[in-house]
């Protein structure tokens, strides 16, 4: 099977993490979520975590040089195909990534753009809850836990991510529009952009992503 390397792009709450998880399992890829890596670092109180926390709580982006160092280090531990979830998020990061990959003769095959309207994002993020232990994600509207606000796997009370507070959600949307949305054009110009609607049920979105991957990569079918 040819190695498949993907980037998942889209606004916060578009379902990148959920879809990246499913697609990674089905296609035997490693999911690299910069948000998850940073949240772990914050929880463990590492130097990276201490540096990142102040930005994350405000809904701002962690500086590009920090992110590029982190991704370069992480990519060197990956032996199979990968999905970058939540990275790159700025033009500077995209250009830095291009160089990191070129040095290692690695190619990105598709950039999957998950499109979801703003009203839907606000609705989704306000209802998002996560398990502080196993990081499973729930949504009180579309994917509630079986027992009220407790993790189905660990039984511990679910929490709201600190950056899912209403004022921070708006800030993250603004940051996406200003700093991350220019990547759409950047990857379109490189012929890598594949737009997929992120609305509708998660299974339908997964199916749409799979169609893109299987059509262009019949050897993965
Ligand atoms: P996420 O879980 O992808 O929504 O990321 C949560 C937060 O982590 C973001 O709001 C940023 O503060 C930080 N973060 C994650 N990925 C990046 C990135 N590629 N560049 C800068 N900051 C990031």
CATH topology label of one domain:
Rossmann fold
Class per helix and strand makeup: alpha/beta
From the N-terminal CA to the C-terminal CA, the straight-line distance is: 10 Å
**Strand content bin:** 5-15%
Record the SSE blueprint.
Layout: E1 5-9, H1 16-26, E2 30-33, H2 34-44, H3 47-58, H4 64-75, E3 82-85, H5 91-103, E4 110-115, H6 118-126, E5 128-130, E6 137-139, H7 166-180, H8 182-189, E7 193-197, H9 202-216
Parallel strand pairs: 1-3, 1-4, 2-3, 4-7
Antiparallel strand pairs: 5-6
Helix pairs in contact: 1-9, 2-3, 4-5, 6-7
Bound molecules: adenosine monophosphate.
Q: What do you see in this structure?
A:
This protein has a domain at 5-117 and 181-220: Rossmann fold, CATH 3.40.50. The protein contains 9 helices and 7 strands; from the N terminus they run βαβαααβαβαββααβα. The chain has helices spanning 16-26, 34-44, 47-58, 64-75, 91-103, 118-126, 166-180, 182-189, 202-216; strands spanning 5-9, 30-33, 82-85, 110-115, 128-130, 137-139, 193-197. The protein has a 5-stranded parallel beta sheet with strand order 2-3-1-4-7, with helices on both faces. The chain has a two-stranded antiparallel ribbon with strand order 5-6. Helix 1 (16-26) packs across helix 9 (202-216), helix 2 crosses helix 3 and helix 6 (118-126) packs across helix 7. Adenosine monophosphate (AMP) is lined by residues 12, 34-35, 38, 55-56, 59-62, 67, 86-89, 93, 163, 172. Adenosine monophosphate (AMP) binds at residues 12, 34-35, 38, 55-56, 59-62, 67, 86-89, 93, 163, 172.
